[in-house]
Amino acid sequence: MAMIKRPGPLDLAAWRTLLATERMRTEDLGAEAGFWLVASESGTLVGGAGLELGADSALLRSVVVAAPLRGRGLGRAMVEACAEKAGQTGCSWLYAFSTEAPRFLIACGFRETTPSEIAAALPDSRQVALYARLKWLDSERAFRRSLSTPKGA
After folding, report:
1. Which among 18, 49, 85, 138 is placed 20 to 30 Å from 63, CA to CA?
2. Per-residue confidence (pLDDT) for residue 20, from 0 to 100
3. Residue 122: how many CB atoms within 10 A of its CB?
4. What is the longest distance spanned by two Cα atoms in the chain?
């Protein structure tokens, strides 16, 4: 069974490797800002997720689970832990970008929104800045989840 925890000094490099294996972006990922979680099983890093925290909103970042462990609830557990942390810091909304996993996000209580809503809610986000610089914002799918109503409401 996988254990979800805050990352240790060696976990960030393993998380970057897992993200790269899944063809996910890593260049703006840093443990120095936000809230990050990793999942490990038998001493091997098998997942990760993070948050960029804003004043009233948070951006869910880099959710990944190693392919052999998908479908066991690990990704959902990390999303829920991130949502709980965002709510504890006073955030009302949790946002995410995804072109690859919209069904997963919807299953976690997210609803589709616009990339411009995320950019307006989180103007200082590292991911928003990266996507704007690469001119990707308009082609991204964007999602939001209220943290003040029960999931799925």
Report:
1. 138
2. 85
3. 22
4. 41
Residue 11 has pLDDT above 50, yes or no: yes
- The rounded distance, in Å, linking the Cα atoms of 51 and 58 is 6
Q: Is 15 left (phi over 0), alpha (psi -120 to 50) or beta?
A: alpha
Q: In what order do the strands lie in the sheet containing 142-146?
A: 3-5, 35-41, 44-53, 57-65, 93-97, 142-146, 111-113
- Average pLDDT (141-150) is 87
3-state helix, strand, coil in the chain (%, to 5): 35, 25, 40
Cβ atoms within 10 A of the Cβ of 103, count? 9
How far is the C-alpha of 145 from the C-alpha of 57, rounded, in Å? 10
User: Would you state the structure tokens that stand for residue 151, as one six-digit string?
Assistant: 């999931």
pTM, two decimal places:
0.89
Is residue 30 within 8 Å of residue 126, measured between CB atoms? yes
Residues 6+ apart with CB under 8 A from 113: 95, 142, 143, 144
Better-scored residue on pLDDT, 153 or 98: 98
Structure tokens at 3: 């254990």
Helices (H), 22-140: 74-88, 102-107, 115-121, 126-133
